[in-house]
Amino acid sequence: MTISITNAISLGAQLLGVAGVDQARMEAGSLLAHVLSRDRTFIIAHAEDALTDEQMVLFRRFVGRRAQGEPLQYITGRQGFFTLEFEVTPDVLIPRPETEIIVETAWELLRDQAQPFVADIGTGSGCIVISLLNELPNAHAVAADTSPAALRVARQNAERHGVADRLTLLESDCFSALQPVGQFSLIASNPPYVSDNEIDAMQREVLYEPRAALFAGPDGLAVIRRLLRDAPLFLQRDGYLVLEIGFGQSEAVKKLIDRNAWKLVEIREDLQGIPRTVVLQNRER
């Protein structure tokens, strides 16, 4: 018995809905588009086309994985971010819309510089630094991560988007593999900032992501403290640190800022009005 594209999506949506997946029909459509290696426009235009048995078996397998809580992005291996599409695997954090604020902010700060030099600390998939290099053709960058597997993903993304020749990838715990010689125009980071105490309250999808990229001690600020303490040594005079913070952390982060080392330029809100991106300027050197 053959089944059409539209009926397959309806079946997948029903199974995902029972499993508690939000926007079940849209996710079912995305999974089927992945199976067919087509976009959603094709799915809509060919709604009555019949699927092969092999396509239906693969679709059911993907729906089953999603129903168990595995994120859509890990099943398809792709996630859009800023203006590009990135490869993602369970070795890297899934890029999120709020993190695009880092790219927007950094671009505004660097667009008039002749040859900006950027560091991305905790690069993961490389989405921040690769997006910046794509927008700033005269820029060069260093991207650091503790995970060799994450760095392999970042390298593949850099090669895919044609910026690998301007990007150095380093296995590094924050700044451990870098020399403190004040070389960077800007340091960007989306650090782990979730409290260890929140593990049990996280959505099941989030727990598929690498925990080292999510959790940062009892108050979630362990890595942010390191960035605030160490970053001035690696920045040019008047260079910038642009970092993401979590919900409800803005006041705590403000208290951690050494005003002798940093000028607080602003804290930008995301689309939900949550203080999300801290912008600091180096006072040292």
Structural features, described:
The chain contains ten helices and eleven strands. It is an alpha/beta fold. The protein has two domains: 3-69, Ubiquitin-associated (UBA) domain (Helicase, Ruva Protein, domain 3, Orthogonal Bundle); 78-282, Vaccinia Virus protein VP39 (Rossmann fold, 3-Layer(aba) Sandwich), CATH 3.40.50. A seven-stranded mixed β-sheet has the order 7-6-5-8-9-11-10, with helices on one face. 40% of the residues are buried.
Order of helices and strands: EHHHEHHEEHEHEHEEHEHEE
Radius of gyration: 21 Å
Shape: elongated
Cα end-to-end separation: 73 Å
Tell me about the largest β-sheet. Answer: 7 strands, mixed
CATH H-level homologous superfamily name of the largest domain? Vaccinia Virus protein VP39
Please mark out the parts with pLDDT under 50 across 5 or more consecutive residues, or reply none: none
Residue share in β-strands: 15-25%
Fraction of residues in helices?
25-40%
Number of continuous helical runs: 10
CATH level 1 name of the largest domain: Alpha Beta
